[in-house]
Amino acid sequence: MENIQLEIDSRGIALAVFDMPGRPFNVFSEAMMADLSSLIDTVESSGDKIKGLVITSGKSAFVAGADLAMIQDFGAMRFSANKTEMRQRYSYLGALFRRLERLPVPVVAAVNGLALGGGLEVAMACHARVCVESTAPILGLPEILLGLLPGAGGTQRLPRYIGIKEAIKMLLDGNAISPVKGFELGLVDALTDADSLVDRAKDLAASMVAGAKWDKPDFAVSAEDREFIEALGAEREMLALTAWNQQHADLYPAVGAIMSCVKDGFLLDIDAGSDVEWDIFVDLMSDPIASNMVTSCFLNKTAASKHAKRRAGVEAELPKAVSWLSAVEAPAHLKKRVELVEESAADLVFADQQGSFADKTVVLRNVVKGDLLAGTGAEIHFCGELSEFVELLGPAADKTRAAALSLLATLGISAVLVDGPRGSLQVMTTALAEYIETTALNAEQLSRAASSVELGASLMAMGIDVDSHAGNTGVEDRSHGLNMLAVVGLAALKALEARFADSLSSHVDAIEGADLLAIYALNYPKWTGGPLSFLAMLQRKEIDPALLSDELQSAVANLQWRLKDERGYCALALSN
């Protein structure tokens, strides 16, 4: 096995160490799943040689989850595979975990660090869990944050361990808990120090009885949990336990999917419950929103820094001395990264306009307040306030811009680079502001329209006063909201066309960058995957274009570009 090392001690306790070569974290890729299957085969065929199994990690984290590039590939299957084929592939990891759970020897997870998504799911499929004692939140099922559900048994095992109410909070909010909290809830069986972790897990494997508690004849869910699930309005009560309201939840299919998994599967046996989960997972992955969110909010977001570094075209050292002369508030941890000095002594200057040291100055521009025509030097564009994504403009291979990129990276701020004076962020905000000004919606109508599509935070970032939690909305409100989303998408595409003309199809990173800027700088709703992904959904009629105004329907119908192909929504090509 390439990704799992196995050794057996004198007591017959096997230690399986997950350690993927060349990766900072262990994830469940196709190769890791194949090795896990081989590990299970080895234990099953060992006779009396293996009397217990401990699973741990050779890295600082346990397992970080599923390989999301593989999940992106799952999303692409909806264009070519039938539901039977999709279900067979999607259920493979969950079926592996069930095989692990049904091993005739005790199986213990020795969780040494971060266990998220599939990492927590495999730990829950073990018969017991020993964790390094910590109050850090490292145990979680964050799939909801990417429009997914934990589809390898997570929606079934977690509530059976900790009860419906605590499980729903974790599943729908995506928040992790600490091993100490997990021990209190009954998810973790023992806590220990890092040096004793594996030995403690081995001792437990040598002394405990094999099998999951729900496979034992006397297992029963609590009367309280049964009553909760069987009550009318259970879904409403589930939402009430979380930060979701119904209107917000309706935009994210994963919310309803998770609640259905729990409601329809929890009172069944674990195998029937898993079948429910897998069927619902197929339906969820047949929806474009999951693919959009995985692609934009994880894969493209993760790759953004690499794209920016490549586009910079020049290497630059991290500046040691910085002068911050802007009225914009400096990032809180800037002082921990560099020395703050006077302008004349600085390696890099951040200011609201070019001054005496233009050759080492980066201008900070709030696009809501700034002029559309930018200057000729390096500029950072943001909306409302500095956030985790900004647009960094300037001449190609400019050392000042490259130095700013290096510093931003150390501050946890990702940049979308633009070679030239005009980017996408200001074009998008200007188009949206102009559209709102001409729609003649009153404040209440505007609030409902923005709330219906989760656009309220965007408008507030632009200084437009709306209630982002407006009351119940209807079809007309949604239509107005979708119009606003389309306006931003069309503006983003127009800005890219102006920069790249007929070569747009070879600048995928810039297209991805426009989506990322909209989501993380403008607060454009994540369920869309960004404005260009939203246009793609309109083109495919995954969102009914008839909900748009006649003018916008015509604009979408007459686009020159086929936006994003079947391969996980990550390419752009000329239409025929």
UniProtKB/TrEMBL annotation:
GO terms for molecular function: enoyl-CoA hydratase activity; long-chain (3S)-3-hydroxyacyl-CoA dehydrogenase (NAD+) activity. GO terms for biological process: fatty acid beta-oxidation. InterPro entries: ClpP/crotonase-like_dom_sf (IPR029045), Enoyl-CoA_hyd/isom_CS (IPR018376), Enoyl-CoA_hydra/iso (IPR001753), FA_oxidation_alpha_subunit (IPR050136). It comes from the Bacteria. SUPFAM superfamilies: ClpP/crotonase. Belongs to the enoyl-CoA hydratase/isomerase family. This is 3-hydroxyacyl-CoA dehydrogenase. It comes from Zhongshania marina. The lineage of its organism: Bacteria, Pseudomonadati, Pseudomonadota, Gammaproteobacteria, Cellvibrionales.
